[in-house]
Amino acid sequence: IYITEEIHNTGLLSAIDMVEVNPTLGASSEAVEATASLAVDVIASSLGQTREGAHASISVIPAVKSDTEQLCL
């Protein structure tokens, strides 16, 4: 999924061809659900959907302001 997110970030993606996805070959209903869900996730991340927690990183934690500094703002 990381790779498809990065491909989206390039802005160069113009087509997607999802091949070799056959959920009917799954041994159980859980396997069928997992296969279909993964295919949807790959396509969605290619189109810009991000995983939860994949937000911009913060390199410095802001210092806590004292009560008087907060009141002056």
UniProtKB/TrEMBL annotation:
One of its GO terms (cellular component) is mitochondrion. It comes from the Eukaryota. GO terms for molecular function: arginase activity; manganese ion binding. InterPro entries: Ureohydrolase, Ureohydrolase_dom_sf. This is Arginase. It comes from Oryzias sinensis.
